[in-house]
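We emphasize that the prediction below concerns an isolated chain of 151 residues; any contacts that depend on oligomerization or on bound cofactors are therefore not represented. The input was used exactly as deposited, without trimming of termini.
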Amino acid sequence: MLRISTKARYGLRALVSLARHQDSSNPVVLSEIAEEQGISEKYLEHIASMLRAAGIVSGKRGAGGGYQLAQRPEKITVLEIVEALEGPIEPVVCLSNPRSCSRSESCATRALWARLQEAIRKELSSITLKDLIETCYVDFPTTGRGRTPRL
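Result of the prediction step, given as a token string:
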């Protein structure tokens, strides 16, 4: 079964929170995101370090420190985020390493897995962080609290 791990799901949620604060010139501390999203701060630190290594976020240490997006939300795709946290999208190993299976060259199903891989990559690369922000927040005027997350 193909599954997206909690690391990728939490990473996407954290980046949505971070992107909502992108217009602010101040970095966002992880404790705020952890509280807002209900994610362990320690786990979020691990996710943030992976996103930083991938160049998706930048971090600043010390007083006034925190994290910011390294690029505008419309430039960051879900594919980039998922692959930064999960590794390459690969339903079967033989797609990237044909030598891993002796039947790779004559396999009747390998083309199917390649098509599935391409469809997933195409879909995830067509969605940006900005798209997520625009589709997962709705206004609830009766609360007087502005935008409420649907995540």
